[in-house]
Amino acid sequence: MNRRADEKPADATASAEAPVPDFDQFAQNMGRLVEEYGKATAAYLKPIERGEAKGGQADEASDMVKTLGRVAESWVADPRKIMEAQASITGDFLNLWSAMLKRAGGEEAKAVAEPDRRDARFADPDWSGHPMFDFIKQAYLIGSRWAESMVDKAEDLDPHTREKARFYVKQIASALSPSNFIATNPELLRETLRQNGENLVRGMKMLAEDIEAGHGELKIRQSDTGAFRIGVNIASTPGKVIFRNDIMELIQYAPSTETVLKRPLLIVPPWINKFYILDLNAEKSFIRWCVAQGLTVFCISWVNPDERHATKDFESYMREGVFAALDAIEQATGEKKVSAIGYCVGGTLLGVTLAYMAAVGDTRIESATFFTTQVDFSKAGELSVFVDEDQIRSVEEQMGKCGYLDGARMAGAFNMLRPNDLIWSYAVNNYLKGKAPTPFDLLYWNSDSTRMPAANHSFYLRNCYLENRLSKGEMTIGGKTLDLGKVTIPVYNLATREDHIAPAQSVFIGSQCFGGPVDYVVAGSGHIAGVVNPPAKVKYQYWTGGPATGVYEDWIAGASEHAGSWWPHWASWLEKQAPERVQAREPGAGKLPALCDAPGTYVLTKA
């Protein structure tokens, strides 16, 4: 059938005709691209030539090959299964080819494979409107989903190996997405032609800079780092550092109310990241909000450790961290009793500390709040894929060379849990589109990684993730065997519903380890956004349902949903325990003089 000259094909939903480049300008830009590529190569080779290259990648690649080899062995053992698997993917590709032929003939054809509606990689109209790119997209989805099914259906795999195989397949599939390559991404192809390759020159320049910043390894920028200054427009709540030792600075925040609750509040943040996740800016700052509610807030700022801290272990962080902070708070305020908050691994340390205090009769912490904290690691979430005897031994060997785990290793592990969002979207935007990332305080914090002392990290991996000794009552600290059942103070245990680091179910199980009253609360969103959820935003909800008894699925099904932030609910819980108020306390006015302004000096050290 003939088509009129002004009539568009049914599939012609492309956003615009492909631009015609200026070939002379394009050729010049390709020359500049080669020049910038040379700089990127030099940045990569520099630490190798100096003998400063970081190790560990070979061990990780070996583990991936070994893990996926176990999956292959499972299938090869049964030829019938191999034939079924081949028939499955062959059938899907035949269906795809048939659908493409129908489209070419002007017929309607239902897609064989559709991306998830939340998958931003294929948002450009040409991924569906242009037959070639639609074919590439669907072929990729068929292949990646088939690979995932090969892992899920493989027999005789132990759960840990299966989870690792799923993780590695996800990494490979994310890396091979057609959205990551110019020739197979319609948006990148249009932009490259429109800009005569200028985008690639800018991108290669940023790539060289990021390899240089990573000392030979790629450190993908996720935010405009020049837009933020710690202590100025991030981590800017007023206060003073009133105590400092080898592993922490203690910040006391300036009051903003005439009276405050008599019982001070101590925050124990994670040392895997820096404390100012709780003080991003004035609108998002949990610390600033707490001060406004009439709390005297103290927060630990952990040192960014180096080789001098190699032997600092969990007991060191308890004694020189939490206990030193309690002593300093007493000197600063005259108060022996405090409330405490622990976030993530800081919460695990707080749980360990409370069990030790119960064992020795120390009652200085009268209530505890945990943010997305695991004390039971039987359902430990996606990070558990990095933890088995072989991987821990490899990490320990790396840490033994310098006394610490490089911050980039842990930051990379967290990013790999969401590779499409936290790795490849930025790689495409920065290095192929040539666009510098926009300022985003949360991602600035995310990239501000920290190192971890060898002894501390090894203890954490082995005693918590690998052996789950704390919840079993088998962990020993300072000569005391710890029993969380002897912790009888009130506990507010916050989980987040979409958490992939400390899953809500894991936090629920951990709640049952304590011997006193536990208010288990679930917030919407994930590990960070579910916690940093100020009331003014009214962005996410939370659920309450009393003690964490029975199983998580039953608890959440019967829980009451509340709109908005959980912060006021927690503040009410805290104030009911000790409502007495006193005159506001100024940092440095007690027995401990101010050493410097908040946020202190330790937070400024880069990994």
UniProtKB/TrEMBL annotation:
GO molecular function, one term: acyltransferase activity
Domain AB hydrolase-1: 293-532
Pfam families associated with the record: Abhydrolase_1, PhaC_N
Gene3D superfamilies assigned to the protein according to its UniProt record, in alphabetical order: alpha/beta hydrolase
Region (Disordered) location: 1-22
InterPro entries cross-referenced by the UniProt entry: AB_hydrolase_1, AB_hydrolase_fold, PHA/PHB_synthase, PHA_synth_I, PhaC_N
Keywords: Acyltransferase, Cytoplasm, Transferase
Compositionally biased spans, kind Basic and acidic residues: 1-10
Name the record gives this protein: Poly(3-hydroxyalkanoate) synthetase
